Amino acid sequence: MSSGMDATRGRRVSRHRGAAGIEFALIFPLLFALFYAVVGYGLTMTLVESMTSAASEGGRAALAVDWQSACPPPTNSACVQTLVQTTVRQEVGDRLQWLPAAMRTQVLGINNSNVQVTVEPGNVLSVVVRHNDFRNNGFVPVITLPVLGDIPRVPAVLDVEARVALGSAAI
After folding, report:
1. Which strand (E) or helix (H) includes residue 163?
2. What burial letters (b/e) apply to 136-151, b meaning 16+ CB within 10 Å?
3. Cα 10 to Cα 141: distance, rounded to the nearest angstrom
4. Rounded distance, CA 32 to CA 121, Å?
5. Alpha-carbon distance 151 to 80, whole Å?
6. Interatomic CA distance for residues 148 and 32, integer angstroms
7. 123: helix, coil or strand?
């Protein structure tokens, strides 16, 4: 009697042979896409937060510029603007040193020249940090999966802006 049960069990096992492999083949692409998306979005959010922090710190550095001693009276507006731009760009560059070299060059440019520093009406300093080709040159490549589409779905351009009220500073 026990040999009949073994034979029955043996047949049941043989009928289900390969089911785990098929289940794995069906589930793996979904799990891979989920993991890849989490990593891709995590790195993207890290970059956005770092760029935002760098722009904010650059704006704060502009407040600390001693333009009165660097540009003695009569105050030359071009001198002050150059001093502020240089200070802000240096601070942003220092904050984004952790980026890989190729990405750092795309975001900051040579000598941090891609960092946009402008003074808007009302003495408001605007600092813009931008990655113009993030979709094609981000941290992780975008992959296209059937049915799911692009993973991770990231914007073509990442840009952040920080604004600082300069108060009565003569810029």
Report:
1. strand 158-165
2. eebbbebeeeeeeeeb
3. 47
4. 50
5. 46
6. 12
7. coil
Evaluate whether 87 touches 121 at the Cβ level (below 8 Å).
Answer: no
Residue-wise pLDDT for 57-87, tens only, equals 999 999 888 877 777 776 677 888 888 899 9
d(CA 93, CA 107) in angstroms, rounded, equals: 9
> Which stretch of 12-21, 86-95, 106-115, 121-130 has the lowest confidence by average pLDDT?
12-21
DSSP code for 72: P
Give Cα separations from 106 to 7, 45, 55, 128 (angstroms): 67, 18, 16, 14
The alpha carbon dihedral of 81, 87, 90, 91 has a sign of negative
Distances from the Cα of 156 to the Cα of 27, 98, 113, 130, angstroms: 30, 22, 21, 11
The predicted-structure confidence for 115-137, as pLDDT tens digits, reads as follows 999 988 888 999 999 999 999 99
Whether residue 83 contacts residue 67, with contact meaning beta carbons closer than 8 Å, is answered with yes
Task: State both tokens at 118.
Answer: 């402008």
